[in-house]
Amino acid sequence: MPRIEIAPSVLPADFARLGEEVAALEAAGVDRIQWDVMDGQFVPNLTFGPDVIAAARRHTSLPFEAHLMVLTPDVMAAKYVEAGCQRLIVHAEACEHLHRTLGNIASLGATASVALNPATPVSAVAHVLDLVDMVLVMTVNPGFGGQQYIATMEPKIRELRALIASAGLADRVDIEVDGGIGPSTIAAAAAAGANILVAGSALYRDPEGLAHAVSDLRARAEAAFIA
Ligand code: DX5
């Protein structure tokens, strides 16, 4: 049975105190840290360079994953591994040679994952599931935090869960969702088959604080998850 994991996006965090912010997320009980890397071309926003992530690295022992919302993942991959990211998530839409890109990430010593924008079909990853440890189904259009969850992605998550199972990879390939995940949406995403849940604004707007937000989201996902 896949393990439920809560992965915070640090997009809503205080960028002037990122070291303290990732330490606070670890103390709040998250399982990993997701860095939303945006190049201002693949998506309109511009965020974290590798040096920023490297500066935060010593402030937590948690795994880092870089969600590379960039046009040139092949060019950038090594820099984010050197910065301390154990997992790189590339967008299928940004890779002319996705199979090769995923293999290159593995050769850098990182684990490879692939993200699908809302309009991209599951079939885009049908022939690379053996090269990844996770597929990210975007539940918003990438670029900004605080957007509305796209519920029509739930059938897509179910389709992906079935594809992974039919490939005999259910114990190796996780499904992550990212975008608009909060108390009112996480159960539906988990029930559709997502076991790694990225949340940004929902964590920071919880009036009872980060730890409450993390444990509440985890409980809701665990109660609803269907493999
Ligand atoms: C979109 C970003 C956001 C972020 C989470 O490109 O990837 O989805 O991580 O944002 P929230 O949880 O605030 O929707």
Describe the structure.
This protein is an alpha/beta fold. It has one domain (5-224): Aldolase class I (TIM Barrel). It is 34% helix and 18% strand. It has eight helices and eight strands. Helix 3 links the parallel strand 3 (64-69) and strand 4. Helix 6 (186-192) runs parallel beside helix 8 (210-224). The longest helix has 15 residues, at 210-224. It is globular and about 40 Å long. Residues 9, 11, 36, 67, 69, 140, 142-147, 178-181, 198-202 line the site of D-xylitol-5-phosphate. The site of D-xylitol-5-phosphate has 21 residues, from strand 3, strand 8 and helix 7.
Output the helix-strand order. Answer: EHEHEHEHEEHEHEHH
How many DSSP-defined strands?
8
Strand % is 15-25%
Q: Reading side by side through the largest sheet, how are the strands ordered?
A: 1-8-7-6-5-4-3-2
Q: What overall geometry do the principal axes of the alpha carbons give?
A: globular
Question: Span from first to last CA?
Answer: 7 Å
Q: Please name the CATH topology.
A: TIM Barrel
CATH superfamily: Aldolase class I
Give the second-level CATH assignment, the architecture: Alpha-Beta Barrel
Which small-molecule species are bound to the chains here? D-xylitol-5-phosphate
How would you characterize the largest beta sheet? Answer: 8 strands, parallel
Name the features.
8-stranded parallel sheet, globular, alpha/beta, binds D-xylitol-5-phosphate, 18% strand, TIM Barrel, 227 residues, 8 strands
